[in-house]
Specification:
The protein is mostly helical. It has 3 domains: about 10-40, no CATH class; about 50-90; about 95-145. The protein is built from 5 helices and no strands. It has helices at about 10-25, 30-40, 50-90, 95-120, 130-140. Helix 1 (about 10-25) crosses helix 2 (about 30-40) and helix 4 (about 95-120) runs antiparallel to helix 5 (about 130-140). It is rod-shaped. The chain starts with 11 loop residues before the first helix and ends in a 6-residue tail after the last helix.
Length: about 150
């Protein structure tokens, strides 16, 4: 049977295994590789595992794990802040409750506006948060911001 030639480059560990099998069976390395390829095609297993896709998927998994971990940390920080805030702020006097509720509603609406603006494309909560917080407090107090 006439044979053609194909040059294949293999990882070192696979190359070592093929050489050992060939030596143990007193055969050529080419015949071991040819038999393995033929057996794979005869089984109908013609799909080749995409190792680069596996590596990419692995990197995505690692990034997702990191993002999940970071979101859990952020959640814990937020819950700790709420707990500390609730523990260290005194209750509101009854005669001030209505005024405080109106003020809280206005502040919350302004806060939501700030978050909406900061989460826009190309913006960040972290970069401009100090200035925006000053602006929000000035708006609520009816004053001006000094940068």
């Amino acid at each position: 049977m006439a044979r053609g030639g194909i040059t294949v480059y293999l990882p070192r560990d696979l190359e070592t295994r093929i050489r050992k099998i060939a030596r143990d069976q007193h055969r050529s390395e080419s015949s071991v590789v040819a038999e393995a390829v033929k057996a794979r095609f005869e089984r109908g297993d013609t799909s080749v595992k995409d190792e680069s896709a596996d590596r990419r998927l692995s990197r995505v998994d690692l990034r997702l794990d990191k993002a999940i971990g970071e979101s859990l940390i952020i959640k814990e920080i937020l819950l700790l802040f709420v707990r500390v805030w609730l523990e260290h702020n005194p209750p509101i006097d009854e005669e001030m409750e209505e005024s405080a509720a109106a003020s809280a509603e206005a502040r919350f609406e302004r806060f939501l506006d700030f978050v909406t603006q900061a989460l826009g494309p190309g913006k960040s909560l972290g970069i401009s948060s100090a200035l925006a917080a000053k602006e929000m407090n000035a708006d609520l107090a009816g004053g001006e911001v000094s940068a």
